[in-house]
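Justification of resources, computational component.

The compute hours requested in this renewal are based largely on the per-chain cost of generating structure records like the one below. Each record pairs the submitted sequence with a full structure-token output. That output is archived, and it is also reused by downstream analysis tasks.
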Amino acid sequence: MEQQTNNYFDLVLSMFNQYLFQDSKNNIDDITIYYRTNPATSGNPLIEELLKAIKDYSLENIGYPLFNSILAKTGKSAAESQEIINKVVKYKNYNKEQIKPAKEYLRNIIASVYLQKASRLYGDNPAELINYVKALEFKSADTDYLNSTSFNKVDINTVIADSNSATLTSSFKFINESFSEGAFKPGDIIVYSAGPSNGKSLFAEQEALHMAIDLRENVNMLIMGDLSMDALILRLATIYSGLTFKEARTNLANIYAAMCRDIGDRLDVIIAPAGVIKAEDYVQYILNSKKKYKACFIDYDENFAMSSRENMYNDFGALYDEFTKLKEAGIISYVLCQPKAYTWNSGDLVRLEDLGTSSRKGHIADVVITRSKEKDTVNGLGIFNIAKNRHGGMEIAHSIRLDNGRFKVIPKAVYDNIKQLTEHQYFTEGELDMMIRQYEIQKSHINLQVAQKIQTQQGGTKTVTGPNPFE
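The structure output for this chain reads:
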């Protein structure tokens, strides 16, 4: 009985977790009935006071002063109070995954009260009992979607917590700055589209290395097609080291050893022929993995095994529906795809409507990023376009693909200067940084001259100062 009481008591303490509080508050009357009628907890003054606090206050207004007042009122000693506070703090720090067992426990308690009510009201009328239960607005599981939520009972604490948990950043500053949260949200479906020979795979590999090394998250890469493991390792080595492909090849053993120290076991790779793996099988593999991946990269969508090649539009709709299962689990999916053929060498911006095979992928995606290939370029120029963004704005960014496999975003003026070149030139990142710096100096001088001219035209004599471009 004592162990059972402790379990019930711990459940109440866990109700102050941000992912559980609103469910508790929305059902607090039924929860209170359960605790009052349960022999293990009936008449417990501390439980009564804690449940009353959930009913009377919002989560942001519940803190140490209220807990200390409740503990003093119910006669807890200093040692007992500290132990209880420590447990509350522990449960408050649980993430969505850790709090799931408590959420299920709470759901079963609420369901048992509903069934008790139904039995009392319609115990002698089974048909009415079933109708009563069916009419209840009760979410029996997280995947019980056909269930209404009143606006004033939205779980705002979870909404805010999920927003604050957006910490999986891109390796590209312009992408992060496009989001209100400054990062991808857990479960985002990201579609990246670029034509052949435009570095689709290199882009994904750069992002995957960033997440595995810089963010230290578990990442899975699914590569379907003709890319071998040795080719993949060489690509990753060039992006990681900044060396050219030729230089990386001659130093591959040392680079690989350094990568292993930085990556550890956080980056997993699956390489398979095209048309062998089904989307539903891969998604289930990720969901069932003990690794708990935070992101997966799929290169690329048309290489999944399809049930029929005769109706690819419908098949692709079903394929992208599968990725929404990863979304529910908070795992972001980066899906690579081709745009329509007319965009491949046009030099025009690749837009949302230019995605190839099926427009459904654009409908389902949370973020769509494309890259065009500058027409007649010999130096890997292209323009990134955030064509869709469910939690931010649209952005474009001029870029260059370097001979080390990396992409670098550059100002349009620098982009236009490189575009004039008719022969391939190997630019190091240091050289590009110098070109960008020179452009910024010139821009600062021009801005200063414009400001001084405006001041003069307005008849002022005050000296206009600007930023020192040499600082």
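The chain is about 50% helix and 10% strand. Residues 143-147, 467-471 have pLDDT under 50 and may be disordered.
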